[in-house]
Amino acid sequence: MPGVIVVGTQWGDEGKGKIIDLLTTQAKHIVRAQGGNNAGHTIKFDGQEFKLHLIPSGILQSHTTCYIGAGTVIDPKVLIQEIQGIEDRGIRTKNRLWISPAAHIIFPYHCTLDRLLEDKKGERRIGTTGRGIGPCYVDKANRLGIRIGELTDKNLFPRLLSSVLELKNEELQKLYGEDPISYQPLLKEYTSYAETLNQYVAPVESMIHNALANHENTLLEGAQGTFLDGTHGTYPFVTSSNTLAGGIAVGAGVGPSHIHHTIGVIKAYTTRVGNGPLPSEIPEDESFLEHQKAREFGTTTGRKRRIGWFDAMIAKTAVNLNGLDSLALTKLDILDTLDEIKICIGYKIDGIEIHNFPYLADELERVEAIYEVLPGWRSPTTNLTSIEDLPKNALRYLERIQQLCGIPISILSFGPEREKTLLIQDIFENKGVFA
After folding, report:
1. Which of 34, 148, 192, 231 is most deeply packed, by most CB within 10 A?
2. Residue 294 pLDDT > 80, yes or no?
3. How many Å apart are CA 248 and CA 35, to the nearest integer?
């Protein structure tokens, strides 16, 4: 089956957008299957920069059909703005973008509750984006959610909104002392969104199944990263969806037997936005990069990313959790000026080396990274055209990462532009060309 999953292997921001954009030159169908507008992909395309939060990155390719799967949560105002934004820049969406009727809708009360709960958490505060993602997934689990197929049903939606809003206003007033949200203005606002989005709602799952049955290359793009997964990530400093390859398949309605390759996107070093443990973190005043030059600000929040050395412990764990077949390594060029480069190859807690990734955030906060030091290459990699052009020490660095992770690097990226990429293995044909 010609199904490929692209997943982040760290805490998001690994450069998935560029890798997805590269692979969409071979793919006909692109699926976004989890998360909401708390995620973001930045892509350089035809000399322009695009920042996408809900629409699959493949929309920039004129030959693709794109889908927003049932596992996502959608802020309709944000989605409409995003559609209009790319339409204004010449990207057509009509009959190319489809939304599953089972995807859940974010309402203003979700965003308000997100902010209010975060304020009350104190030391348990996680640094949420405040976009209502978590509360929307909570309502989904509580069977209180409203899905886009219900939003676009003129007879059903008013009744559902009335019953849910009554419960949400009680929560806002009694628990937080907030003013209630008025029903009629909210109904009018979201009815207008429904009228705009109705043309995009379609039986997405059947369309994806048919594409796979017809052996048409299909790419499932992940949002966020492995260690933001709500089950296996660095809980509670996680997102509210399942960001692993398995969660992406569920959100798209695709069985695991339909996936023939899972590629993990990973930086040549490690970054994280927001709160939570980062074992290989480098103090900002000792960092080896300039945030602006290295483009290390969150696509969605604009927050400065925390920086760490490459962490082979989390990389190997991500390989196992996702069943990765290969890695797409990004931002190699950021290391070009260094005399030496560290790789975190293990952890100690209280002076004792541990051999498994700790799942308790408290333990992970206490770990001491064990480093291996490799010589830098002190040579630019931004104009590479083949693997043979790599400086000897850069090749040694990549070989060590492959050895530690136990899988090959199939794509190498050294800049935001598409041409600054080496495709080492044809992912859809699964023909390896690099040992």
Report:
1. 34
2. no
3. 10
> What stretches of 152-244 show up as alpha helix (H) in DSSP?
156-176, 183-197, 204-213
User: Of how many residues is the chain composed?
Assistant: 435
- Give strand pairing partners of 353: 348
Report the alpha-carbon distance of residue 262 to residue 411 in Å, rounded.
13
Is the pLDDT at 18 greater than 90? The verdict is no
Tokens 């040992």 correspond to 435
* Encoded amino acid at 143, one letter: R
Spatial distance between the Cα atoms of 328 and 14, rounded to a whole number of angstroms: 9
**Poorest-confidence range of 1-15, 96-110, 136-150, 317-331?**
1-15
Question: For 333-429, where are the alpha helices, taking DSSP H only?
Answer: 361-366, 392-405
Select which of 29, 41, 104, 261 is catalytic: 41
pTM of this structure: 0.91
Dist. CA 343–CA 43, nearest whole Å: 28
Name the nearest CA neighbour of 224 among 206, 207, 242: 242
Crossing angle of helices 76-87 and 183-197, rounded to 10°: 40
- Is 41 catalytic? The answer is yes
Instruction: Give me the pLDDT at residue 47, please.
Output: 74
Radius of gyration of the chain (CA): 22
